[in-house]
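User: Small ask, check this?
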Amino acid sequence: MTSDAKKAVDLAALLERSEEFEAAIQACFPDGGLVLAQETEKSELVAAACQISIEHALVLRTAFTALAPNSGAAVLRLQYEALLRAAWLLFSATPAHVERLSRTLDLEAEQAAKNLPGYLEMLKAVSEKAPAGLSAPLAEFNQYSRHALNSFVHSGIHPLRRARDGFPAEMAATLVRFSNGLAHIAYRMLATLSGSQRRMDRVTHLYVQFKDCVPMSESSGRV
C-alpha cells in the first residue's frame, strides 16, 4: 500500500470512529430527544445553538467523506462560532440579548439582532465568565485556528493553495478531530441543560474511550 493510500485509509477509519463517538454520546440522551430542566427562552436558545454546532459537525464529516475538504474546513469555522454563541448565551448574555434573539423572525427582529455582540466580544465575555473547562478550549481554538479557517470561508489563500496543491491528509485528520472535540463540548452543554448529573458525567468522560479521534494537545491546535 502506498503512503497516500494508507493516509486515505487512516482518514476513513477516523471518520468511522467519529461516527461511533457521536453515536455513543447520543446514547446518553433520551430516545425522544433532549429534555430541558428549565424550559426558558435562554435554555432553548442555548440548546438551539448547540444543536446547530452539532449539525455542522455532521456536515463536516460528510464533506471529508465526499472528498470536499475545503468545504469541510469552512464548515468547521461555522461549527466553532455556533458553539461560541451557545457558551455566550449560557454564561454572558443579558436578558435584553436573550429577548432580541427570541423574537419572531421579521425585519425588525433582524435589525435588532445586528446590534448583538460580535465574535471577539462574545469570546472575551465567555473567557471572563464561563468555567475554564469551556472557555480555555474556545480561546485556544481561536488563537490557533480562526484566521486560517476564515480564509476557507472567504476563499482566501488557504483554500486556493490547497485546491491547487492538494489537501494534506494530516491536516484533514486534525480538522476532523477538532470538529469532534467541539461537538463533544456542545453535547456536554446539552447534558448540563438536561439537569441530570449522571448524564453530565457520562457525556463528559466518554472521550476517554475515543482518544484516537479527539484533539488531546495544544501542539495539534494549528491549522
Summary: Residues 36-217 form one domain. Residues 217-223 have pLDDT under 50 and may be disordered.
